[in-house]
Amino acid sequence: MAKPPKPGPYALPAADAAYDRGEYELAYIKYLPLAEAGEVRAQIRLGKLLYEGLGTPKDYAEAARWWRRAADTGNASAATSLGFLYTQGHGVPQDYAEAARWYRMSATLGDDHGQFDLGNAYRNGRGVKQDQAEAAYWYRLAAGQGYAAAQFNLGIMYAAGEGVEQSRDEAVNWYRLAANQGHAAALNNLGWMYWEGEEEFRDPVKALALLTVAAERGSEHASLNKANVAATMTPRERAEARLLANEWRERIAAWGG
Q1: CB–CB of 208/238 below 8 Å?
Q2: Rounded to the nearest 10 degrees, how much is the dihedral formed by the CA atoms of 230, 235, 236, 238?
Q3: pLDDT digits (tens, 9 = 90+) for 156-196
Q4: Which of 26, 56, 116, 202 is most exposed, with the fewest beta carbons within 10 Å of its own?
Q5: Model-level pTM greater than 0.70?
Q6: Distances (CA, A) of 168 to 134, 193, 217
Q7: Alpha-carbon dihedral of residues 163, 169, 175, 176, nearest 10 degrees?
Q8: What is the pLDDT of residues 103-160, one digit of tens each?
């Protein structure tokens, strides 16, 4: 039987364009021969379409097959996705050790998502021996690449002295970096530190501003905390907090959050 013709040089851009336009059924049709021909980006996109059921019925096992093919070429993003499938037991047997193996491959290749997920594995002892210091190590690598959830988790670890030497200043630094990107829990925790911190650190205006923005971004804790904080403040302080909240909204927007 004759082999199908190799996709032309414009096949991948055409598939990407269909995907970007949200024409997922067309994208699926265009990516399939590319993926079969070994095009890694097509394999990754095909896995995503199959996993989410975009343009084709959901099929976790097929998503796993394509992500594995891409990961076997050394693609970090595909390795992270495959690790996620093993964590969830989607299309493959749930296997935390196998998930950690793929996360480690991705993490060592520099993928921030893989570094974060490997940090989670060490923090929770899933598939690897629980090790908070090792968790902090991988979180720090992801956080250094701007991964907000890793920055937030480092803030928690420094606040509690978990796997690192306890440090309020470090906790504030990492919470602030995540908050800059609009991370609701980081905004809440930073705001609460300004409210409940030592006397020289307390700042009700900053606290209310941060809690207000956190609540707007979906933090239920912030909604409750904001009301408690606002009840103790003067009208002038609340007005100052509103102005500062606007500054935070602008900062987050500038970061693309």
Answers
A1: yes
A2: 30
A3: 999 999 999 999 999 999 999 999 999 999 999 999 999 98
A4: 202
A5: yes
A6: 20, 9, 24
A7: -150
A8: 999 999 999 999 999 999 999 999 999 999 999 999 999 999 999 999 999 999 999 9
